Amino acid sequence: MELKDKVAFVTGGSKGIGYGIAKSLAKEGVKVAITSRSLESAGEAAIKLNKEIGQDLALGVKADVRHYDDLTKAVEQTIDKFGQLDFVIANAGLGHYANIQDLTPEQWSETIDTNLTGVFNTAKTTLDALKKTKGYFISISSLAGTNFFANGSAYNASKFGVTGFTQALMLDVRDLGVKVSTIMPGSVASHFNGNNPGPKDDWKIQPEDIGEMTVDLFKMNPRTLPSKVEMRPSQPSKK
């Protein structure tokens, strides 16, 4: 598929995985709406991306994925600006890691509302537009969506949910001509959970690697759908 002049909507796109995906798409000539809870962060990311690409392809939009109305407005802004919507990447996420004895109800709710309900909200608010273009929806889950670990009750629950939701969504909408996949990365060199990426993270998956995978999925022959893609570092760090 030729990607130039297609339109993408990336939640949580101001840094990390989301920004890596947005940049990879923009390099292919895709117009990209980058969302963030902060309009300032979204706008700064769009300006940065436009400078790096050398074209005016990115738009910064405020949207807190926990809130359906926020996403409705962000999608409307994107279509008003670019005229259509071809690709949606539900990437926004966060992590609270704690033993269940210490995990607070507020941390549980923020994790589930952002990581899981946020994907539902993103899918619901973009589906009509994707039906018009026979578009593609991708969620960013995690290997934590099939592999549980200590202190991960909230994060595991959210990502198990994202994996299951996205696979069910795929079955719901494939007869409408909309393709759906979930990408499940392992350790990524991103700003997730307060990390400051540096040389210590060179062994990890890089955000641009996930961007490259996203581009590959969009270019896949339409007769084939890789519905679930696991990604992991080829040489894990030996502690």
TrEMBL record:
Coiled coil feature spans: none
Gene3D superfamilies linked to this entry: NAD(P)-binding Rossmann-like Domain
Gene Ontology terms describing biological process: monocarboxylic acid metabolic process
InterPro entries the record matches: KR_dom (IPR057326), NAD(P)-bd_dom_sf (IPR036291), Sc_DH/Rdtase_CS (IPR020904), SDR (IPR050259), SDR_fam (IPR002347)
All residue ranges annotated as the Ketoreductase domain in the record: 6-192
Family per record: Belongs to the short-chain dehydrogenases/reductases (SDR) family.
Listed NCBIfam families: PRK07326.1
Protein name stated in the entry: NADP-dependent 3-hydroxy acid dehydrogenase YdfG
